[in-house]
Write a sequence for this structure.
């Protein structure tokens, strides 16, 4: 059973009530809403963490885009889905998980960035000198 009336007039009225964006609630699975955010967050991540894996930065950008959409939904509707029961929207817990994941991933990226900055860069002359010293010592 489709849920639509068999009566032509009632069916037209039912179909007229449908809205093109009716299925979009939070927008976390909407390509048109997520894609521009993901692209923006990816570009920002590439700039902030040069030399990191693009796959890892893409995942970070996707998580940030989804978290942004959920936060926008919560800002507009609030966290509580059912006031009397105090029931939160299910996406509130998803937002918490995404934020935790983003925080861990950014901490890892920041740690790698600090390690690269702290490591002294060897020049070609330094490398050649090390090789010559190793040869002289019989290593």
């Amino acid at each position: 059973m489709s849920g639509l009336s068999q009566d032509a007039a009632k069916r037209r009225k039912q179909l007229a009530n449908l809205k093109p964006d009716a299925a979009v609630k939070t927008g976390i699975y909407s390509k048109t809403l997520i894609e521009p955010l993901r692209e923006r967050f990816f570009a920002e991540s590439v700039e902030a963490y040069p030399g990191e894996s693009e796959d890892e930065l893409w995942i970070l950008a996707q998580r940030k885009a989804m978290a942004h959409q959920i936060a926008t939904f919560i800002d507009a509707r609030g966290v509580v889905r059912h006031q009397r029961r105090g029931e939160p929207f299910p996406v509130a817990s998803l937002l918490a998980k995404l934020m935790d994941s983003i925080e861990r991933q950014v901490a890892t990226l920041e740690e790698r960035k600090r390690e690269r900055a702290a490591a002294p860069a060897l020049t070609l002359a330094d490398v050649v000198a090390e090789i010559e010293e190793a040869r002289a010592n019989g290593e």
About this structure: The first strand starts at residue 80 and ends at 82. The chain has a mean pLDDT of 86. The chain has five helices and two strands. The helical segments are 8-17, 31-48, 54-77, 90-118, 124-136.
